[in-house]
Design a protein that fits this description.
The protein is of the alpha/beta class and about 270 residues long. The chain has 11 helices and 8 strands. An 8-stranded parallel barrel has the order 1-2-3-4-5-6-7-8, surrounded by 7 helices. It is globular, with a radius of gyration of 20 Å. The structure holds 3-methyl-2-oxobutanoic acid. The site of 3-methyl-2-oxobutanoic acid has 11 residues, from strand 6.
């Protein structure tokens, strides 16, 4: 599908053929127009409007408080910025766990009101009916297994998941269920690399990892972590490409100094 003249939009089919060709998929989170525009211009394949907005945009401790309306607001801003990449939006906690009809209604609201290209939801066998219903309504669905932050109060910690054989086998079984239910891709979060490799080799759909090792078909990071805006979060899997916290802080202290010292604005910076 070609949109906006020369630019070819990334679709779920593009991701599938990237997996077949062994081409890695790049994915980041985004929550606002300006950052999404930069990421899209840089050539990112997928932007996820993650419910991590609850943490990094709203300052909540977990992803649980963010609402469907708030996710739609973030998604609208991101979609407006993107000419090329695929935009996927998280169904927030409480908008799909009740039953498959509620899940479908939430997915439809996201698609109609934001213009996004698909949704993501967390879980395995317990959400299969919802996934099938959403997929049969024509909405692409991305799954999410391993560390699923909406269940943090069940897990109790953010440590690596599926290290033990029983949990690993459950994860593999759930990954197969998600593929059979029609998911176009699955995120695997914070699991051993060997398990990530096993799942990626077993499934035909692309697996996107965050802390799931080098054998994933693609990688995703939260933009605030990748850019070094978050300071006190340093899991082993995180590579920081900038130290924006310090850079922005330094720029801000310089601005304050310039204003206080009557250095800003100077003669050329006024009318
Ligand atoms: O909400 C989010 O940012 C996510 C990623 C960690 C995959 O789900």
């Amino acid at each position: 599908m070609s949109v906006h003249g020369e630019i070819r939009r990334i679709t779920t089919n593009t991701l599938q053929s990237m997996k077949q060709k062994g081409e890695k998929i790049s994915m980041l989170t985004a929550y606002d127009f300006s950052m999404a525009q930069i990421f899209d211009d840089a050539g990112i394949d997928v932007l996820l409007v993650g419910d991590s907005a609850s943490n990094v945009m709203a300052g909540h401790e977990t992803t649980l408080p963010i609402t469907l309306d708030q996710m739609i607001y973030h998604a609208q801003s991101v979609v407006r910025a993107c000419k090329r990449c695929l935009v996927i939006v998280d169904l927030p906690f409480g908008s799909y766990q009740g039953n498959s009809k509620e899940a479908l209604n939430s997915a439809i609201r996201i698609m109609k009101e934001s213009g996004a290209h698909g949704i993501k939801l967390e879980g395995g066998s317990e959400v299969i009916e919802s996934i099938k219903r959403i997929v049969s309504a024509g909405v692409p669905v991305m799954g999410h297994l391993g560390l699923t932050p909406q269940s943090i109060y069940k897990f109790g910690t953010y440590t690596v998941r599926a290290k033990e054989e029983e949990e690993a086998e459950t994860l593999v079984a759930n990954a197969h269920l998600l593929e059979e239910a029609g998911c176009f891709s699955v995120v695997l979060e914070k699991i051993p690399a060997s398990l990530g490799k096993r799942v990626s080799e077993a499934l035909k759909i692309p697996l996107i990892g965050i802390g799931a090792g080098m054998h994933m078909d693609g990688q995703v990071l939260v933009m605030h972590d990748m850019l070094g805006i978050t300071k006190n979060f340093s899991p082993r899997f995180l590579r920081r490409y900038l130290n924006l916290y310090e850079e922005i802080r330094n720029a801000t202290t310089q601005y304050i100094t310039d204003v206080k010292n009557r250095d800003f604005p100077n003669e050329k910076e006024q009318y």
